[in-house]
Amino acid sequence: xxxxxxxxxxxxxxxxxxxxxxxxxxxxxxxxxxxxxxxxxxxxxxxxxxxxxxxxxxxxxxxxxxxxxxxxxxxxxxxxxxxxxxxxxxxxxxxxxxxxxxxxxxxxxxxxxxxxxxxxxxxxxxxxxxxxxxxxxxxxxxxxxxxxxxxxxxxxxxxxxxxxxxxxxxxxxxxxxxxxxxxxxxxxxxxxxxxxxxxxxxxxxxxxxxxxxxxxxxxxxxxxxxxxxxxxxxxxxxxxxxxxxxxxxxxxxx
Length: 254
Known about the structure:
Elements: H1 2-11, H2 19-30, H3 32-40, H4 44-71, H5 80-108, H6 123-147, H7 151-181, H8 190-220, H9 227-252
């Protein structure tokens, strides 16, 4: 009876959820308001308080949203895949100002890189690129196996994707730590500000993608899969992969 009611509800329109609003409020208080309190009003306490409110809201929102996705059955298509396309467009527009700012600074500078910069590594970002591209191939393989009816194969390749994504993040942390020890931090110069802003923004998207994959893997271990959620998460991961090509080419090799 409950399954019939759930399918019937999906036939009459999408189910409303509060979690996107919770996440949006969390992001607002965690980033823009905290930034304003610290750098505009020079009130570190208010900035910390704002982040203390925003971070739990974001975590709570992500957990709630993922739990809803985990609870969905295979018959519920919803608006997840189409909505992910619009979400990716919005995320691309977030990256665009960062790249545009960097291009203006880079092309208008008399000398580049500015004083205080270090020689950017070439081998590590190349390896990171191979790792991330490989993860895009593995999630595509996982999705294909799921469509073929192999949940066991889906679990295996999804786990491989998560391992590759985690490896990418750990390599990013190692790279940042290496640059910090060389005295290259976010406030060194305009290049460092762009570098850490764009690589950090991309890294946060990788982290979110891993959270999505965890929301797929946990129910898949029990043999339950929401295919709409998987398709949307896979599309998001391919977007993260594509954005990395812009980041790595501009920050490391230009």
